[in-house]
Amino acid sequence: MGIITLTTDMGLNDHYVASLKGTILKSVNPVNIVDITHNVRPFDVAEAAYHVSSCFKDFPDGTVHVIGVDSEPIVNFSGNDGSFPSILVYKKQYFISNDNGFFGVLLKQNKPDSFWRIDDVMSHPNLFKFPTKNMLLVVAARILNGDKIKDIASPHEDYKNAFSPVAVSENNLIKGHVIHCDSYGNAITNIHKDLFDRYGKDTPFIIRFKKKDYFIDVISLSYNEVPPGEKVAIFNENNLLEIAINRGASKTNGGAEQLFGLHENDIVRVEFTPKGSKQTIDDLFS
Has residue 161 been placed in a domain? Predict the structure, then answer.
């Protein structure tokens, strides 16, 4: 049975997602449909890439991921700067999206298995009205029904890369950003454990965010290593640094997002104090 996932910015207040699912059920049988999220900020392909990159590894080989964010093709007749529906093959899975920067953010520095531009887009301008349904899902159905990519699309070398902040490291400092606040109010950053570990296992550090009064100087293995209501920093399942309040999400507060005022794109700093670099951790605030 084929598997298709949906990631869109369509929300759930309108008929759009139901229309997508009806189209899939009419085109592929049997099929499993999995919603990754439909709450991506409108046209925010970087946020879509975050959600898909966080979970696609949990799906089996051959899964088809459809990303319906900023899906309408852009045709630039004076050059090659347009955006066209495309197929990325990566880690034995298929990602179908408009080439609007999503693929570059998803891959980061990794290389795709292959990349394809979907053929014959321009001869059907009527399909532009609902391109996720009328273009992307049509291709997804063909792949799930056994068609070969070479019969759907043509190999292409380049894909666009949308802006996405990258954590940087310099002079005993990692400077990152909050890239997502989840439904618990946990603030997830773009600071990866691999970058953090470059400074050594036992090197003292302090994580600073928002104000000098807000800092954490230990990485916990789980939320419950601190009492309920206390701030905590962990590396989550995707090895990204996360700042949270243990059991902090409720009707009266919203975890780190509300209590610390942390929002997406806010800066988070990790300052290390290797032996001989500073006398005390208090010097970080001087």
Answer: no
The CATH code of the domain that includes 59 is: 3.40.50.10790
Give the rounded distance of the alpha carbon of 190 from its chain centre: 10
| pLDDT tens digits for range 180-220 | 999 888 999 999 999 999 998 889 999 998 766 688 999 99
Inside any domain, residue 160? no
The answer to whether the beta carbons of residues 84 and 144 sit under 8 Å apart is no
What mean pLDDT comes out for the span 50-69?
98
- Residue at 162 is within a domain: no
Is position 163 within any domain? no
Question: What average pLDDT does this structure show over 102-130?
Answer: 86
Task: Report how far residue 141's alpha carbon sits from residue 145's, in angstroms, rounded to the nearest whole number.
Answer: 6
Q: How far apart are CA 84 and CA 73, in angstroms?
A: 5
**Which of 23-27, 52-56, 134-138, 248-252 is predicted with the least confidence, judged by mean pLDDT?**
248-252
Percent of the chain at pLDDT exceeding 90: 71
Domain end among 90, 124, 155 = 155
- CATH number at 237 reads 2.40.30.90
pTM of the full structure: 0.88
Which structural domain, as residue segments, surrounds residue 132?
2-155
- Split into its structural domains, the chain has a count of 2
Instruction: Quick: pLDDT tens for 67-87.
Output: 999 998 887 644 456 788 999
